[in-house]
Amino acid sequence: MTIRVLLVDDQPLLRTGFRLILQSEPDIEVVGEAGDGEVALSQVRALRPDVVLMDIRMPRMDGVEATRRLAEFDDPPRVLVLTTYDLDEYVVDSLRAGASGFLLKDVPAEDLVDAVRVVHRGEAVVAPRVTRRLLDRFARLLPAPRTDDAPLPELTDREHQVLLLMARGLSNAEIAGQLVLSETTVKTHVSNVLMKLGLRDRVQAVVLAYERGIVKPSTS
Amino acid sequence: MTIRVLLVDDQPLLRTGFRLILQSEPDIEVVGEAGDGEVALSQVRALRPDVVLMDIRMPRMDGVEATRRLAEFDDPPRVLVLTTYDLDEYVVDSLRAGASGFLLKDVPAEDLVDAVRVVHRGEAVVAPRVTRRLLDRFARLLPAPRTDDAPLPELTDREHQVLLLMARGLSNAEIAGQLVLSETTVKTHVSNVLMKLGLRDRVQAVVLAYERGIVKPSTS
DNA sequence: GGCGGCCTCCTCCTGGAGGAGGAGGTCGCC
DNA sequence: GGCGACCTCCTCCTCCAGGAGGAGGCCGCC
């Protein structure tokens, strides 16, 4: 089983270069090429590659848009984005579009073939220079610097457990059902949680749970 | 100029293994070891390493906390986190703490020394298996372009306003005070919000507000 | 003008939430 | 054994939340 690769770049010379590199690997097969995003889409439909090496800047349809369209395919190929510059927005947009990796075009041959194998097995790879920027940006997006001035060590396991269920919008009766307890017991735990955290009601408990990162959004 | 490395792991055997791998590289020098986070901090002060290989799970002070403290140093070392499992929370917490890389402990020797060089020159590296999860998570955090376009189109301005205050933990009476309304009116708006969104009570409204990104956990 | 959407406020009513104040149980520690 | 922390489950009580079913006023549109 070879890894079927499609090359997408508007510069024929670059495609040739990549083809030479990849073709010399026994487990990789370059099944086609495309010079813009639209051709890439039809090539993917026709050739069913496993991995697409995708340039960002291309005429007609750019790599980001093409990646986005590919993500809507049944059994879509993995997309490995290749950019000349490590520009943040390209990286972020591609990622949002569903790419599995980002490399710079000056990538060493060995790293390129490694990356093809990595994305093919469902993992992801990002060029180190890009990773740094990506992590910086990621860190800024994260729930916050977490000033752990007032942690919540005072909560017992049971109380913490109840808090988590509360934070998912469950009523006392539902929590009781979930934990196989009487509603009375749940009310006791809830009361203790509120008292310990200095809160008025379960609504504030939910707010605190999200603000402190005890529960995090986007689980759904 | 060699790269000065400090090994931090509570398992001496692992430290020895890493030491052997790194020591064989001409441009890398292992200047010290530490068995927990606290020792690591004093070692960094004394030895001024360029790169710290940091385990996550350790007694006394774990790797995440140690990384966070290191970030507050003048001219802090780069931290390369090593963990046994590719657990999401560790990754995210480490990055937030300021780590420059994240590797699994079963990393091939060659990749390890590469990673040390990469973080030393200010770039970053993440294990492919972890990268996939990280990117998925990152993608969810990003300002979603289309799914967020019409999350709650049916809410009127007033209802949306009430929802925001509800999501901050305010009671009906407090919302009424805030918006200069009667409590009755607020209750009407709340009821409408719940009905339109198909929710049971304000607790679920708060959960939805956070999950849909209508309100976001903030630094404050 | 009439109609519909939105905002405002009302009363009556039920149910759940949460506090007060218990009690019995297990477990680990001194 | 005694003590304290934790988990479990009571009862009585109050109060807010939320539904049902209104009503009047404003505004834009046909």
Strand content of chain A: 5-15%
**CATH level 1 class label of the largest domain in chain A:** Alpha Beta
Termini distance of chain A?
36 Å
Series of H and E elements of chain A: EHEHEHEHEHEHHHHH
Helical element count of chain A?
10
Mean pLDDT score of chain A: 83
Rg estimate of chain A, integer Å: 25 Å
- Which pair has the most extensive contact? A-B, 47 and 45 residues
GO biological process, one term (chains A, B): phosphorelay signal transduction system
Protein name (chains A, B): Two component transcriptional regulator, LuxR family
Organism (chains A, B): Geodermatophilus obscurus
GO molecular function (chains A, B): DNA binding
3D architecture notes:
2 copies of one chain form a homodimer. The first copy, chain A, is α/β, with parallel strands linked by helices. The first copy, chain A, has 2 domains: 3-126, Rossmann fold (3-Layer(aba) Sandwich), CATH 3.40.50; 145-211, Arc Repressor Mutant, subunit A, CATH 1.10.10. The first copy, chain A, is built from 10 helices and 6 strands; from the N terminus they run βαβαβαβαβαβααααα. Chain A has a 6-stranded parallel β-sheet with strand order 2-1-3-4-5-6, sandwiched between helices. In chain A, β5 (101-104), α5 and β6 (125-126) form a beta-alpha-beta unit. In chain A, α3 (63-71) packs parallel to α4 and α7 (157-166) packs across α9. Mean pLDDT of chain A is 83; it is low at 144-150. The structure holds a DNA duplex (30 and 30 nucleotides). Chains A, B: Residues 148-213 form the HTH luxR-type domain. Chains A, B: One of its GO terms (molecular function) is DNA binding. Chains A, B: Residues 4-120 form the Response regulatory domain. Chains A, B: InterPro entries: CheY-like_superfamily (IPR011006), NreC/VraR/RcsB-like_REC (IPR058245), Sig_transdc_resp-reg_C-effctor (IPR016032), Sig_transdc_resp-reg_receiver (IPR001789), Tscrpt_reg_LuxR_C (IPR000792), WalR-like (IPR039420).
